[in-house]
Amino acid sequence: MTQKITAHDVNVFYGEKQAIRQVSIDIDQEDVTAFIGPSGCGKSTFLRTLNRMNDTVASARVEGDIRLDGEDIYSKDMDVVQLRARVGMVFQKPNPFPKSIYENVAYGPRIHGLASGKSEMDAIVEQSLTRAGLWAEVKDRLSDSGTALSGGQQQRLCIARAIAVDPEVILMDEPCSALDPIATARIEELIHDLRGRYAIVIVTHNMQQAARVSQKTAFFHLGELVEYGDTNDIFTNPREPRTTDYITGRYG
Ligand SMILES: Nc1ncnc2c1ncn2[C@@H]1O[C@H](COP(=O)(O)OP(=O)(O)OP(=O)(O)O)[C@@H](O)[C@H]1O
Ligand SMILES: [Mg+2]
Prior knowledge:
Layout: E1 3-14, E2 17-28, E3 32-36, H1 43-49, E4 60-68, E5 71-72, H2 80-86, E6 87-90, H3 101-111, H4 118-131, H5 135-138, H6 151-164, E7 169-173, H7 181-194, E8 199-203, H8 207-213, E9 216-221, E10 224-230, H9 231-236, H10 241-247
Parallel strand pairs: 3-8, 3-9, 6-7, 7-8
Antiparallel strand pairs: 1-2, 1-4, 4-5, 9-10
Helix pairs in contact: 3-4, 3-6, 4-6, 6-7
């Protein structure tokens, strides 16, 4: 297994309050990794350390060592805009730009200069929408507003937008929590299809979803990484009593 991201002794503070405590974890290139744990345990906070999204929170302070392919992402030399293209993010609530479907996908590649002309851009847009499982549904309405799509389609558009800049890692923070079961199933299929091409980390409150989509699971509790391992082991044979309590629904 190739380690795409390695995190060592990570602490995150919001002002005086510590939200993440001494978390160390390696994220595999080939796997989907699920972050689970009760509300407020720090899943989103830790996820955001992986592409420096916490930089946008004034009170947040990150300590520790986080590397992408061995490169220190908190180094002064790290270009954060570039980093966030390499480590893309999909949020809980689909958040397409108030622009056309085409422009939602073309925006990132344009900023990053990935296409040299219209036909190259067209190809990137088509490929990204195809990989996101949305092309067939939108190919005849690319100039419609992204916000006019259904919730599930909007979320796939956001995934297409992340894919369009050719990322290495995709972080998803509860990407299905605003979606109905059918739209959720489509996103889960998509995650399955994207596995291997991108390292994927998904935060979910849905145990069945974690079991279905991931190969590795990390259980967080009160800011600590309690247990991390093969998803199968975490769900069938957890080592820590706190993990057992959580997955059997005793709290959370
Ligand atoms: N911007 C912020 N400012 C101050 N405290 C924050 C901020 N964001 C999160 N926190 C605090 O950090 C802790 C971890 O929050 P976080 O959002 O990472 O948890 P979570 O596991 O993602 O929860 P949920 O499952 O509800 O999304 C919580 O105590 C939360 O109140
Ligand atoms: Mg969260």
